[in-house]
Every structure is written in structure tokens, then in C-alpha cells.
Amino acid sequence: MKTTTFFITALILMGFSGYAQTDFIGASRKIPGHPRLLLLKGEEAGIKKSIAADVTWDKMNQAILNESDAIIKLAPVERIKVGRRLLDKSRESLRRIFFLSYAWRMTKEDKYFKGAEKELLAVSAFSDWNPSHFLDVAEMTMAVSIGYDWLYEALPEQSRSIIKEAIINKGIEPSMEPKYNSWLKANHNWNQVCNAGIAYGAIAVYEDHPQLARNIINRSIQSIDIPMQEYGPDGTYTEGYGYWGYGTTFNVLFISALDKLFGEDFGLTEKPGFLKTAGYLENMTGPTGSPFNYFDSGSKGELNSAMFWFANKLKNPSLLWVERNRIMGDQAHKQVRDRVLPSIMIWSAGVGISNIAPPKEVVWAGSGKNPVALMRTSWIDPNAIFVGIKGGSPSLNHGHMDAGSFVMEASGVRWAMDFGAQGYESLESKGVDLWNMKQNSQRWQVLRYNNMAHNTLVVNNELQKVSGKVPLTGLSSSSDFMNATFDLTGVYDGLLRKANRGIAIIDSKYVEVRDEVETADSDVTIRWNMLTSAKVDITGANKAALTIDGKKLSLQVQEPATVTMKTWSTNPAHDYDAANPGTILVGFEAKIPANTKAVLTVRLIPGESQGIRMSPSKPLQQWKQDSNRKR
Q: What percent of the chain has pLDDT over 90?
């Protein structure tokens, strides 16, 4: 397909696609020549100044160059799909091309230029970039656009032509086809990633097709507003920690490119909650370095370069307290699998890593569709107590039946954990109806997705209600009684009349989890779950002792008086379930009569419980709350 033919077709498609647009940038806008994406010509000098001034940035720069040396020895990426996805190839292409293009701009060494050109020509020759799974196209378009733009002045005319045609025909064109672009109206990471990737393509070829490029950029500014509404009002990211690192990073890549080109972001950073989301991400990581990995998140923490953009934007280096620990010392070389790592050299703005101070606040909470509360006793004590708890709904994108679930750390150990994600291909390849979110879907039979494997309640061995919603109802940052409360009633509709959960760190010494429930017209059996990697011993009628590497946690059931302490296996229930070695569920079952109000109170006490003075448990209505929050 020739570019001129496509150009005419594109304008028609854009004019009659039914997607009304606002003209944000206008025909009179002037944009810089190449390179124009993220880093203008000559701006390498600022990065070099940062490298000279701070050993951490010197090591990060060297880590990128060393990895680039390794990349140039590899055969180019090939078009090999895994199931229905080409995504791993697109991501590897983005990593290779971004690294090599950065290395060339910083050193002007021909080996990096040749390596990047080789990768660019290889993926440009693919038959397509797999538009049926459009994330693949978006990331590949971003990869090729960065390479095309950053290497533009040195690329031979023939290479330029081949790469430009690929950006247009394999990236931009399919983004206009309705069968591929439903993401334009999505409220999740697909919208952020796809709009960013295709907009990079438009920016890269701007001078050749300015009207087309403006249409694409205008469309992206308008469309990306939809998922950005999800950050309101407080900055929580609906899809959790892992997808924050995906969707928000690409959102920032888009905004950063707009700022560089036009000197403004067209009001995007003014969206309610967006700039606050840096606080959410920072507080999501516990003292062990592991995140609160609810929904489809991995259990390992990761470097988030977008946090450097937020810190610079907000003039608040303390937002980088967690990130600094991932790059200081000899940590930089561990980050080279991050495909957008060079962006950290652009967004860091030379911040002195060793001078970053810890945050002042130890409690963070956000409302919204998937509310969370995050509490800790210290930012600098590796043995600090940390608790994260969430509400929300299983119906949300990448949702699990985990409303009311929590994680807990103390003594440098994660005692209450979350499995997080299971690889999608491992389920899809076995025919699991994974993306069906209905109540009776096979999705909820997957062990890691249902409430039987989360740190919440199970009533009569039934699933939580997919349509239910669990709001945050109270919060206190009081140092002697940090707490958060949630109304769980919605996810137990038809099973309980009422269900409320509170979790507190008391006197910086122990954690209390209190559930207040009211049964309906039938007797129920309530199961209280906690997933752990500890060795568990049931030591009494209402006690369990947990041990990890010689460290101890006591789990004590204060009420009801009569419970059955139990452990449950986490062995796979089906052939499609992931293996879960070294984990177990601990808790209890309690039988509650019909039409009864009941209280379930559990205390999690780090170390030796003897000698710790504990206060009597109070009804949730009497729990302290911050004056600026209403139940």
C-alpha cells in the first residue's frame, strides 16, 4: 500500500468515522525538527550534566550502554506470536530500539546506530504488527517511531522510507479501523497505551502528513481523557500496581511528548486525581520492597520511571523514596529489562538521589472505583508494620474477588500476601473463558481470582458478587490507631444483610482486623482467610503461630468465642491453575445463626506476643476517624 493512497483514505476515515474531534493543536502550530520525541536536539547535554554530577545517574547511563552492547550482538526480533499475542516481541523491540537510540544519541558511536537501524528494518518488514491485539501495534509503533525520530538525521533515505511506510501502514492505518480501535472509548490501560503509541507514530511522520498527524494527536488528547477520569478523586489506579506501571507510564510518555512539542499538555494534568496518583504508587510498596499486588499485578516491586516525571512536575523529590532504593548502589544494572528505562534519564532532571528524604505522611488512602488504604509505622525502619487494604468490585478491569482483602508486613516479612496475577496465556491456551466477567463465568473458578484465595471473607463457600461495590467509609492517620473501614455489604448481597470491615495498626505494635456482620434469614458459615508463605501451627482453640526464617507472628481470634481454626491447601484445583508452592491459607470458620449481628475480631501480633499490652476491641462506629473524612 502506498502512502499517498493511504493518506487520502485516512482523511476520509477520520472525517466519517463518527468520532467527533476537538481541534486542540490547530494547523498553525509549529513543531521542532527531528529529533522531537521526548528529547530535542542538543538536550543530551542536560543528561550528561546529570551523569557527571551524580554517581547513580552515571551508573544508570552505563548500565544502558552496557545493555546496548549486549543487544547489538543479538539477532533481530522475529515475528513469532505467543497464542494470540505478538506483544512480547513488540515490547522487546521497544526495549532494544529505545536503548540503542539513546546510546547513539549519547555517544554517536556507529555500532549503536547500526544496531538500531537493523532492528527497525527487521520489524518494518513484518507482514503486520498484529492489529487483532492492538497493544502489540501500539508498542511496536512507539518503538519504531522513537528509532525513526532519534536516528532520522543519520538514516539513509531508503531506510527512512521503509520505516516511515511501516509506521503509517502498520501502525496508524489500522488504528482508524473500527474493528481494531474499540480502545478509543475504553477506560483502562488499553486506551492509554494505544493512544500514546499511535500518537508517537503521528509525531514521527508529522512533516510528511501534517493534517493526518494533527487528526491523530487531537484524537489521542480527546480519547485519553476517558481513562484519566479514573484517577479521580484521589489518585487511585483502578487496575492496581502492575497496570499503573503500564497505563500510567504510557500516559506520561504521551503527556511528556506533548509538552516537548507544544509547550503544554492541553489540560490533561489537571484531570482530578492524576497528579495525586504518584502518592498512590509510592505508598503501595511495603518495607520489604514488595507491592500491594491486588488484581493482575506481579508480586515483585519494579522501577517506575514515570515517578521521576511526577516528582519533577510536583517539585517533590520525596515521591522517589521507593524508587531510589531500586537504583542506588549497584542496582542500576538490574533494571535493564525495563523497556522504557532511557526515559528515566530524561525525566530525572538531575535530582540528587542520595539526598532524597522520606515522605512525611505514613497513611495514604484514596476513594474512587477501587478504593485503597495504605498504612505504615515508618518509612525508614525495615521492620515497620505495613498494611494495605482495598475495596472496589470484582467487575472492574482485571478484577479479582478480593474486596476487603489486605496485605500485612512486619519484622521485614510479608505475612499476609496476595497471589496476584496468573499468566493469561497459561489460562487461554487451556480454553478458560478468562475475560467473561459474569457471575457464573469460568473466570471465577480460577483459584487466584476468587475470594477463597484472598484475605477476605467467604460466606457459605460462595463467591463474592461480581456486581457488588465496596466503598471506603472511614480513615484515621492517628499514630496510636491508624485505621480504615470499608462497607463490604455489596459483595455479599443475598448472603448477609450487612458486612463491614475495619483494619487498624494499634500503638505501632500490632494489627487488628474487625468484621461486623448481620445475617439474613438463614444460618451461615463464615470463613476468615489469610494467605501466607509462613509455616503455620494451630496452637489453640483460637490461635495460630506463623514462622518465616525464625521470625514470628501470632494470629489470635478475639471473637467470636467459638471458632474452628483451620488451614486450607493452595494446591491447584484445576489443571489450568498455577502452582502455588510454599503457601497456605490460615484462618477459621464460624457458624452464625440467622438474623444475628456478629463480630469477628482477629489480631496479628509480630514477634513474641507476651508482654504486649493490648486495648479492648471497639465497635467500628467508635473507631477514630480523621475530621476531614465522613463515614
A: 92
